[in-house]
Write a structure and sequence with these properties.
By secondary structure, this protein is an alpha/beta fold. It is 34% helix and 20% strand. A hairpin with a 4-residue loop joins strand 1 (11-14) and strand 2. The longest helix has 23 residues, at 232-254.
Length: 315
């Protein structure tokens, strides 16, 4: 099966007979994709969006499908708010996530992001640039009602669906949703297409293994957490970036550079045109943590300061 071109435009796109996606350009911070898998008389939703208005708009846009096949199940791929803050609108669905994801969700509340918005100086400017388009004050944090550890098999109206928790990588729990007969994967934020991956949890080496696992499956179509629908070449592009950062950061660690010195010294080269290039700051840290498990972790405010600095935000 050859992956047909799916235009990167906002709204509902049909991938094949059972798989659909809701795309939200431009794919930068907070503008994430979701998925819909249909069966006989029911559907499974892969992720909600960053706030209630965006999620409501999506659910209304899916109604042409879900009126006949209501959403009975939802899966949150990971704990970043742009993939679950709309959960409160799924009152009639069982919501599933990995146990690691749910544990992290408890820490990643809307209030935590509000705190970033209120920071002074460059950090606050950078955070407001990212998050002010979203209505985070109106979110009621709604956690999944069912958890699993590494894998879970589901049937959605006769459609076989496999869940695989491949984290820790981007976050502590990163679930991909595989629809074998449709040769389709919803990858969550294990795939950023056109944007810079960010390794909040790591290790980077495990993220590379997660991508290699996806490539080992008989899959043509990959729906990323951010960016346009892609194919195996898109997955290899993410691996390429992660291997580049791991190599460049490892070289500088061996020279005795600090992580902050390394992030300033690395030249992105072929990756310089990716959106959110400042995420290099966190990705270098992830490599350093893997090389030196005793290294003290940098807190979130300092990470945002470094990312803001790399992207040219000043006090």
């Amino acid at each position: 099966m050859t992956t047909r071109h799916i235009p990167y435009t906002k709204g509902l796109h049909t991938l094949n007979d059972t798989c659909h996606t809701w795309l939200v350009p431009d794919g930068t911070w907070g503008w994430s994709n979701a998925g819909l898998i249909t069966g006989d008389g029911e559907s499974l939703l892969v992720d909600t969006l960053f706030d209630v208005p965006l999620t409501r708009e999506m659910l209304e846009g899916l109604a042409g499908i879900t009126d006949a096949a209501p959403i009975r199940t939802a899966v949150n791929t990971h704990a970043n708010g742009d993939h679950w803050f709309g959960n409160e609108l799924l009152a009639d669905a069982e919501i599933i996530a990995s146990a690691a994801t749910v544990e992290e969700m408890i820490q990643n509340s809307p209030l935590r992001l509000q705190g970033l918005l209120e920071q002074p100086g460059a950090v606050g400017k950078f955070a407001r640039h990212i998050f002010e388009p979203f209505e985070l004050t109106g979110v009621t944090a709604t956690l999944p009602t069912r958890t699993f550890e590494r894998a879970l098999e589901l049937t959605v109206g006769g459609t076989h669906v496999s869940l695989h928790n491949l984290g820790p990588a981007h976050t502590t729990g990163d679930t991909v949703v595989h629809v074998p007969h449709a040769r389709t994967i919803y990858a969550g934020d294990l795939l950023f297409i056109g944007g810079t991956p960010i390794t909040w949890a790591g290790p980077v080496s495990n993220w590379i293994k997660a991508c290699e696992f996806m490539l080992s499956l008989d899959v043509d179509t990959f729906v990323p957490g951010h960016g346009p629908v892609t194919d195996q070449a898109g997955v290899r592009g993410v691996i390429d970036y992660l291997q580049f950062v791991a190599s460049e950061a490892t070289d500088r660690h061996s020279l005795g550079m600090s992580a902050e010195e390394a992030m300033r010294d690395i030249k992105l080269g072929r990756f310089a045109d990716l959106d959110e290039r400042g995420r290099l700051a966190q990705n270098v840290l992830a490599v350093y943590y893997e090389l030196d498990p005793d290294l003290e972790h940098v807190d979130a405010l300092e990470v945002f300061r470094r990312m803001a600095d790399l992207e040219g935000w000043t006090d």
